[in-house]
């Protein structure tokens, strides 16, 4: 396995792969946030007609969403089981996505500057070296192309909400989904982006209201946040 991967993390999502497209399963939060993040990406990148790579695509929820918006989508992941579920779901959706078993780093070596848009959502907090993944995403996108990330901030509030609240109290996610030590501060992600040759365009937070049970985008980046950036070199 590629050095920038935690076998336990890959196995964790492989074990749940058969439930990826069940909106009432452990992946319910992904189904609920997908329209928000999809609109946010599409508003900035205008997906229709673009060559798009979804890094860490899992079962293909975002990949299919972008394909439905008219993008030519490629998805890569290190979980064969998740990719199998993603490919199988294409028969149900009728959409077209080209899935590959590969790491971001290996795919960047094989396909440098190949894509107009690269997305890497809910993944950076699951790899040993997020800076390596950011650099690979940058190499994969064409100069002037856009890269999108989403991850979790690292602070006491994010531990309370994303780990204790989401996994133990509200039970939105299975226990052990996240390792707080791997959470990434916006300043750290911004540094990785700059070092890789990206220029940040927008940093926006995503919040969950337990009373309305709804997600929204806004200024609060204390817990979940998203970043868009452009390759400038």
UniProtKB/TrEMBL annotation:
One of its GO terms (molecular function) is 3-demethylubiquinol 3-O-methyltransferase activity. Residues 53-149 form the Methyltransferase type domain. S-adenosyl-L-methionine binds at residues 37, 56, 77, 121. It catalyses: a 3-demethylubiquinol + S-adenosyl-L-methionine = a ubiquinol + S-adenosyl-L-homocysteine + H(+); a 3-(all-trans-polyprenyl)benzene-1,2-diol + S-adenosyl-L-methionine = a 2-methoxy-6-(all-trans-polyprenyl)phenol + S-adenosyl-L-homocysteine + H(+). One of its GO terms (biological process) is methylation. Pathway: Cofactor biosynthesis; ubiquinone biosynthesis. Transmembrane segments: none annotated. Its EC number is 2.1.1.222, 2.1.1.64. O-methyltransferase that catalyzes the 2 O-methylation steps in the ubiquinone biosynthetic pathway. NCBIfam families: UbiG. This is Ubiquinone biosynthesis O-methyltransferase. It comes from Thauera sedimentorum.
């Amino acid at each position: 396995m590629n050095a920038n991967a935690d076998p336990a993390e890959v196995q964790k999502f492989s074990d749940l792969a058969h439930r990826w497209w069940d909106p009432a399963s452990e992946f319910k939060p992904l189904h609920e946030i997908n329209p928000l993040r999809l609109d946010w990406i599409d508003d900035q990148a205008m997906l229709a007609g673009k060559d798009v790579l979804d890094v860490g695509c899992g079962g293909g929820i975002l990949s299919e969403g972008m394909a439905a918006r008219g993008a030519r989508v490629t998805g890569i992941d290190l979980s064969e089981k998740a990719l199998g579920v993603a490919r199988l779901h294409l028969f149900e959706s009728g959409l077209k996505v080209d899935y590959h078993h590969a790491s971001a780093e290996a795919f960047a070596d094989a396909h440098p500057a190949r894509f107009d848009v690269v997305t890497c959502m809910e993944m950076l907090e699951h790899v040993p070296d997020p800076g390596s993944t950011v650099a690979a995403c940058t190499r994969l996108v064409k100069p002037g192309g856009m890269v999108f990330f989403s991850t979790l901030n690292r602070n006491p509030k994010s531990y309370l909400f994303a780990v204790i609240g989401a996994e133990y109290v509200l039970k939105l996610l299975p226990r052990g989904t996240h390792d707080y030590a791997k959470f990434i501060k916006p300043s750290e992600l911004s540094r990785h982006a700059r070092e890789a040759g990206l220029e940040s365009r927008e940093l926006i937070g995503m919040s969950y209201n337990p009373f309305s049970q709804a997600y929204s985008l806004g200024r609060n980046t204390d817990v979940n946040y998203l970043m868009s950036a452009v390759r400038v070199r």
